[in-house]
Amino acid sequence: MQPAVEFRKISKAFGAVQANADVSFTINQGAIHGVIGENGAGKSTLMSILYGYYRADSGQLLIGGQERAIRTSHEAIALGIGMVHQHFMLVENMTVLDNVMLGSEGGFKLAAHRKQVEAKLREICTRYRLDVDPLAFVHDLSVGAQQRVEILKQIYRSANILILDEPTAVLTAQETASLFEILRLFKEQGKTIILITHKLGEIMEITDQVTVMRSGRVVGAVDTVSTSKEQLANMMVGRPIQSELPRAPFKPGAPVLQVQNLNLVDAQGVKLLDDVGFTLRAGEIVAIAGVSGNGQSQLMEILSGMRLPTSGRVDFLGRQLPYAGRAHADGLPATFRKLGIGHVPEDRLRDGVIKDFSVMQNTVFGYQDRVRNRWGLFDFNAIAKRCSHLLEAFDVRPQNPDLRIGLLSGGNQQKVVIAREVSAQPKLMLVGQPTRGVDIGTIEAIHTQLLRLRDEGVAILLVSVELEEVRALADRIVVMSGGRITGELNIEEFDTTRIGLLMGGMHKS
Amino acid sequence: MKKTELPRWATAFVLPLLNLVSALLVAALAIHLLGESPLESLAILINSAIINPEGLSYTLFYASTFIFTGLAVSIAMKGGLFNIGAEGQMYVGGLGLTVALLTLDHTLPAWLLVPAAMVGSALFGAAWAFLPGYLQARRGSHVVVTTIMFNFIAADMMNFIIVKYLIPEGQQNPASRVFSDAAALPQLNTWFPVLGDTPLNISFLIAIAALVIYGVMVWRSSWGYQLRATGLNQHAAHYAGVSISRMVIVAMLVSGALAGLAAVNSVMGSTHYLSLNFPAGAGFVGIAIALMGRQHPVGIFLSSVLFGALIQGGFDLSLEKPNIPQETFIFIQGLIILFCGAMEHFYGPAVLKLINLGRKG
Amino acid sequence: MDDFHIASILVSTIRNAPVLMFAAMAGLFAERSGIVDIGLEGKILASAFTSAAVAYSTQNVWYGIGAGIAVSVALAMLQGYVSITQKGNQLVCGIAINIAMSGLTFVLAQYFFQQGGRTPDLGQARLFDVVLPGTAFVSNIPGLGWFYGHLLGGHSILVYLAFALVPLVHWVVYHTRFGLRLRACGENPHAADAAGVSVEATRYTAMLIAGVLCSFSGAYLAIVQSGFFLRDMSAGAGYLALTALVFGNWRPVYTVFGCLMFGFFGALQIQMEGVDLPVVGRIPGSLIHMIPYVVTVIVLAGLMAKSVAPKAIGKPFVKSR
Q1: What is the set of domains in chain B, with CATH numbers?
Q2: Residue of chain C with shortest Cα separation from A91
Q3: Same topology between domain A5-237 and domain A255-351+426-503
Q4: Above 80 in pLDDT, residue B113?
Q5: What is the rounded distance in angstroms from the CA atom of residue C305 to the CA atom of residue A290?
Q6: In this complex, which of C188, C197, C321 lies closest to A54 when CB atoms are compared?
Q7: Cβ neighbours for A247, distance < 8 A, ≥ 6 positions apart
Q8: Is C274 part of any domain?
């Protein structure tokens, strides 16, 4: 039997970045094939080529044994290739039915085909246990349900090769299990599944073969049964990962942050934060663990002054944070910074830096009022000196203060942000997803930096979706699910299964 | 090594120049279709606007007004706001200076009247920009449409005020009374007689001072830094502690004040009375200048002089060539906004290819 | 108060609305696809001039309208090129077109007709009015005669076209394949792209439709309402049309209500001029003239309607991978 997909020496460059270099491997029909690698390994680019978003610079692509040039997503769909993206491609103010019909309406007048499509969708839902109402509006559906709509779309279009890009990033453990059941059903029906992920556990659990990518190249292609998590991790990273970073013994000081009964209700009446409360002491790292989208981001926004809570009380160094009496959080982050709260934001490019400003300009971002004279003008000499000191101390590459920060790699951008926040000597550091989009070497450096801060007596609140990161850094772990705290544990009590259950909404009984 | 991005000098000089030339080529085509020779027209224009010293004086006189409207639009743009309302703000600024002068011009000496007029025009201009700024900051109403509406409202309101309150007894002409002789801007021809009997006055020097202050404020001050951050990325600016609504409102106030100041040259420096529709499109020219000059002080200056030349040369041209009326320059203005604003990266890929020719990839 | 003819105000409302309706429908297609159409004003002016000029020169109204369509479509395609292919700033492009057309129409009118920037009166070469069957029969019945003969009937054919367009536009946008793709491109172009829809082609088509619809606005102004082209005769109609869209939440039927509202204020203005009202006396013309623009600001301040624009509006579509 011909392989479902074969890549032969596929190469693709974006400007100076070689995203794929001589990528060659085959994907068997009827298999669940995993493609694993770190951020920037080239997995997404490769799949985009398969789905027609990009053309490869060189190499061949064979579908079912026949060489194809896939120029548009339309052509990919015609060849039976379907893709479930990490960021859903759904029009929120339309129904599931309309979303599925988009692109395959079956005629000029919609009404003619609506009934047919609806019937077919219900049939597919039953067969694969997808549990979605075709007439529901997408914005009313949960994240897990929206993902099932994406899968439904592909099945409706008779996809035989289904690409799933980091599907479990937004799912709880239970939803992940349901998803895997669905995938197994697909496999029984003879469909081919390509699973892109960086989670080793999932690869071992469900795939038949694995291809490992690193820096745009294929570094390993194995049968899942004959490999192990450790082996895959080594191939992914290229060197053994340091398991334990040095840290001083745990001697927490006085309470720095006291959160009590924090509630957040959004404009639609959805409770984003439900009676959240915890304490954070000096010299302590508390990690908020949980799947993305369970209130952690909103919690960080509130604690950094970027957003107002609906109700509740937060005390910082014994004094209440000034949320009361305000209509909006406009300008509040400046007040919080002055009080001594530093913030490394989750979304670096949206919140943390100005892409078009230079590195030097970004080192004063948020602290612009501390580097001006009494006329309001900047003291450029002082800023430049401080900047070069920071760039060197934090090993930012390239060490060029005048470079537009958008040109630096994610890891180096993050180093600038952390350098900036740390050098303001905060009493409390809010850190959101510090190693997202950051290369392995820099991850270690950032972790070391955070531990050093903690040893110096700073209180750190860390939000991370990566359990490995939580385990490496936390003194205490607070688990959130559905906007509520479902459990708290010390680092000694760390247990993946228990935390997974808490993340999935199961309270400790 | 092949470059993947255009170097600074290409984006700052080459592209704007190519854009300007494109606009002028289209204009030349239009002139040709109107039955005139573009080269001859250009020659008349250059002669009238630059070479002739009195013409040059007029060119710089018009440029003085444009520098202010160009600054007004530029500073709003730096904050991410597209202020189309400079025309209305300049018009209402004229009312401000008129109120100041009509009240004080027989009591105060000359050297106090000019600052009084400037304060009046700046205050009224800022006031006219306040509501669009406030609505954008607090209600999310798009500043483009609100400022356009305020232009129309200004036209009607000023019409009403001039006709009802400002026309002196027995006069038919819709204008205020003439200001006293003391309320006059010192003219530059007192120091440079070669300029002849032209209205070029100290507001030209004030305009240059304004350009310098603008440069320092925007690029060297903390406020300017926060302004630019707001214009580039509001989310990040909020993270950095900038009060976005305050920044938007203040930016519009400053913008309106600058547009109001443009009235000083137009009214005090020229007619010495407030007349109907005196801005005559200067606010819209400001948009073209802000885009063409890329909101940079030197760019704004050069673009203002260019437009001053177009107006002065265009006036003489329209006398000699009736097929090229002054409205032609409104058309050219639109072309410049199109090429320098909407299509500013049009030549980017071609220039990049040219730069990379002969480089190893 | 008996100078106040409610009847003629209502008739005038119906006759004022089409200028805004055509432009608003045009804007609806453009904006639903994700493109901000600030350039409605320029397209109205260009088609007003062209249709009047060609209609006069050929003494044929239909050639005039056809020429107006061609010009408006050309401008719309330019906007499309700048917004879609060049991914340039859509607001700036629209303003550029408005200013350029303001100048160019005057210059061309002057060049061709030497009448101070206007076109000559069309006189007889105008469009016909539609007289509904049986009008003469009911004209003697008070109330009904007026209602049937002057409110429902007796308007120019373009007026009926404007109102007939509304259900058609509604059907196209909500019940056809093109409409579904149009709305997807305006809400989430990445989703449309992933579904195999060409976002570029859909947006260009939307601009084409906008060009055609907008040309009728200009033709109506020049041919039906005045009989000639006059400098800057659109007087902000393009922006009022955009406001009607905000007011109507980008839905065809509600947008038309907004157009009718503006038409009503325009009609009111004519009636109120020179009329002594109780308490306030005579209101100066310029203050009445201001009313539509003030209403626009009030609508935009969100005081009249809570409005949600198409999510992806104004942002050039760049495939992000």
Answers
A1: 1-36+321-361 (no CATH), 61-316 (1.10.3470)
A2: C188
A3: yes
A4: yes
A5: 40
A6: C321
A7: A451, A454, A455
A8: yes
Distance of alpha carbon B176 from alpha carbon A280, whole angstroms:
70
Smallest CA-to-CA distance from C254 within C184, C213, C207, C307 is with C307
Written in H, E and C, the secondary structure of A466-497 is CHHHHHHHCCEEEEEECCEEEEEEEHHHCCHH
Range of weakest confidence among A114-118, B241-245, C49-53, C122-126: C122-126
Closest CA of chain B from A330, distance in Å: 5
Q: How far is CA A14 from the centre of its chain?
A: 23
Residue C182: pLDDT over 90: yes
E strand intervals along A310-350? 311-316, 319-320, 341-344
Please list every residue in chain A whose beta carbon sits closer than 8 Å to the beta carbon of residue C317: none
Give the number of domains in chain C: 1
Q: Which chains touch A (3 or more CB pairs under 8 A)?
A: B, C
Question: Cβ of C110 and B325 within 8 Å?
Answer: yes
Please give, rounded to a whole number of angstroms, the shortest distance from the CA of B78 to a CA of chain C.
Answer: 15
User: Which of these, C230, C288, C170, C239, lies nearest to C20 by C-alpha position?
Assistant: C239
The residue type of A285 is I
Q: What's the first-to-final CA gap in chain C, in angstroms?
A: 67
Of C95, C96, C294, nearest to B153 by CB-CB distance is: C294
Task: Please give the CATH topology (third level) of the domain spanning A255-351+426-503.
Answer: Rossmann fold (3.40.50)
Q: Give the pLDDT of residue B361.
A: 61
Identity of the residue numbered A459: A
Q: How far is B226 from chain A (nearest CA, A)?
A: 8
- Give the strands of the sheet with A255-265, arranged side by side: A271-281, A255-265, A311-316, A319-320
Interface test with C, best of B343, B345, B346, B347 (most C CBs within 10 A): B343
Residue C310: count of CB within 10 angstroms of its CB: 21
Question: 3-state SS of chain B: helix, strand, coil percent to 5?
Answer: 75, 0, 25
Q: What is the ipTM of this complex?
A: 0.87
Give the range of the structural domain holding residue C58, as residue numbers without chain letter. 6-120+136-300
Q: C109 in contact with B at a CB cutoff of 8 Å?
A: no
Looking only at the bridges linking them, the beta strands covering A32-36 and A192-197 are: parallel
> What tens digit of pLDDT does each residue of C194-247 get?
888 899 999 999 999 999 999 999 999 999 888 899 999 998 899 889 888 888
Query: Number of CB pairs < 8 Å for B and C?
Result: 144
- The model's pTM is 0.85
Asked if A98 reaches chain C (Cβ–Cβ under 8 Å), the answer is yes
Tell me if B342 sits within 8 A of B44, measured CB to CB.
no
Evaluate whether residue C317 is within a structural domain. no
Looking at the complex, report in whole angstroms how far the Cα of residue B275 sits from the nearest Cα belonging to chain C.
Answer: 16
- Note the helical H segments in C81-198: 90-113, 135-138, 144-146, 157-175, 177-187, 189-194
Give yes or no for a contact between C95 and C38, defined as CB atoms under 8 angstroms apart: yes
What's phi and psi for B230, nearest 5 deg?
-60, -40
The answer as to CATH 3.40.50.300 being correct for domain A5-237 is yes
Instruction: Give the dihedral of Cα atoms C291, C297, C300, C305; nearest 10 deg.
Output: -40
- In the structure, what pLDDT confidence band is assigned to residue A41 with cuts at 50, 70 and 90? confident
CB A314 within 8 A of CB A320: yes
CB neighbour list of residue A502: distance below 8 Å, 6 or more residues apart: A289, A479, A481, A486, A487, A508
CATH number, position C199:
1.10.3470
Which chains does chain C touch, 3 or more C-beta pairs < 8 A?
A, B
Within a domain: residue C226? yes
**Length of chain B counted residue by residue:** 361
Burial class (CB in 10 A: 0-12, 13-18, 19+), A26: middle
The answer to whether residues C230 and C44 touch, using CB atoms and an 8 Å cutoff, is no
